[in-house]
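Crash report, auto-generated. Payload:
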Amino acid sequence: MPLPLQRGPSLQQVADAAGVHRSTASRALNPATAHLISPEITARIRAASQALGYRRDAMAAGLRTRRSHLVGVLVPDIANPVFGPILSGLESPLKAAGYSLLIVNAGNDATRQAELAEDLIARRVDGIVLATVQRDDPVVTSCLRIGLPIVLVNRAESTARTSSVVSDDVAGMGLSVRHLTALGHCAIGHIAGPPQLSTGLLRRQGFETAMTEAGLDATMISVATGYSREAGLEAAETLLSRHLVTAIAAANDLLALGAYQALARRGLRCPQDVSVVGYNDMPLVDMVQPPLTTIRINPVAMGQDAAALLLGLIDGNTKAMTTRIVNPVFVPRQSTAPPNG
Amino acid sequence: MPLPLQRGPSLQQVADAAGVHRSTASRALNPATAHLISPEITARIRAASQALGYRRDAMAAGLRTRRSHLVGVLVPDIANPVFGPILSGLESPLKAAGYSLLIVNAGNDATRQAELAEDLIARRVDGIVLATVQRDDPVVTSCLRIGLPIVLVNRAESTARTSSVVSDDVAGMGLSVRHLTALGHCAIGHIAGPPQLSTGLLRRQGFETAMTEAGLDATMISVATGYSREAGLEAAETLLSRHLVTAIAAANDLLALGAYQALARRGLRCPQDVSVVGYNDMPLVDMVQPPLTTIRINPVAMGQDAAALLLGLIDGNTKAMTTRIVNPVFVPRQSTAPPNG
DNA sequence: GGTTGTTCGGAAATCGATTGCATGATAGGC
DNA sequence: GCCTATCATGCAATCGATTTCCGAACAACC
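Recovered output after restart:
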């Protein structure tokens, strides 16, 4: 059944009302070409446009200009609080430049992601932001092949073949480890994220590097199957059953909270018996008990940077590949203390 | 500068490759009209389409069919964890029906919201989901005027003139109050949300109704200026300075957490001195200290229901206005206890 | 064999805006 | 007074797919 949606007036109708040709109306209404039309006529067309409540049809315009002014965004899970701020950061600069966001919940399955990316391409998006990227992602390959501007955010590939905005995961985990060693900890364990994600891998590398530099044992690592409390609980259980640690550096706040639960189960107190450091500084982790010491990334800034990069790419200014790195900062709270405290 | 984006093949090229007219190719590729074309020809066209990697141009198709298969979503703040799950719930049914989401961060300013809605209309969205709605919203009026399908979610207007999906806020606050009275509380205060939002108003009404029914004083109310911890802290300070309460029913989890801070400042313990009940059951409120007793709404289900309603509206099946109410459930944790406990 | 009916596929108009090119008018120069 | 330069505007093609209308081909029937 066709919906009885009444459409607004077309450019033709505005032109008729103003007594000019539609091409003239088009030029008058487009800031870039308005100088071609005399002021009086422009005023008349403007008036007619206002009077009729004309709104230019973005689809029709896009068909002709081959520009949809749409940007596709692939996120693994919109409901995950990490991505909200990134989206928020992306939105304002893009909106200001006349772009709208086509946000897609892409999950973690590479095949599904590829399909959804195809959908976006069929919609003729002018660019794509990927927050889902695996360490070597087929979606990136297909975008690169057709020359579609693309920017990665939050996660990066193993080889740098696109512009991207990431947090310095290695350095961030270094902050975490050095804080613990400064407190006097020697037996420090790591709960790692999924190794197919750059954050999982890089934070683990950051842990190993920092521990080695400190001359400590860097092998007490337990890998979680995902970024969730359940996975963190499980990984922490494994870690605690195998090693005697006085501190845990987790790859993610949720993993750290899972570790809280594992400690509680074993009757261990945090931070008196075991210190815990998270990663991300999610909302509310300052209110948990004990308030979580963590590493803050700046997701809004990352979104904004990614938007700026993408706009450059779309306009063809920034041809070169650029990697922008946002520095994480250390946020001390009460989940860490000297050992045997 | 024009971007050198190489487009995929057009339908014409597929038709040429298959040796048929482009109209034939169009019919063969469209499931609804494929029966008009003989199986052999269809197969040939399919093959050519595959070989060339043809993807139909959604913009061009939309121009002709007057259907963009785009749904606009206005949310006040994507970064707010409440909206993630709603978006997530919206997405799957709509995606399954071939729709993509145009999500817009609309803030709380009605003028800006109206502008953004205009943008969406110019993009010829097939429907709009409003999560921003004020109690009497101009955006609703303009959508209604042009006959654009619209569904409200989470917040509703004061008069029911559109389909909407809401949580039963009055009943939910009733759960909160009855839990407290059952524990023996008599001096119960309320931290209300902004009265221009339906959630703020209705939860307050729910509080007043339930208190009156219980024969208790329903006037110990402090109104917060927004849904944030800061606003909750402020409102709780006011409440505590004016009244002697043994329990607080807050209109929102963040307000409840603000109340935690206010209690701490005054040296009052929760729940021993003052019980606190939140609303929403946001992620992580089970990990704060004490774990927050709250009312769970089901935002994913609300999103899904809203999507179903909108699809009905778009297809013209559901002409009637429908209000769907999702029942909130009570979630007991450790922030409530009998008075003088 | 002529007529009717059916099926399949082509021709062309259409959606609404943009833009290269053409045309008409006006001004200016000799 | 004629020729050219300049400027404002109109004309028409175009983007890529959909869909209404038609014609051709073929079968069946009397």
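Post-recovery validation: The CA atoms of residues 51 and 304 of chain A lie 37 Å apart.
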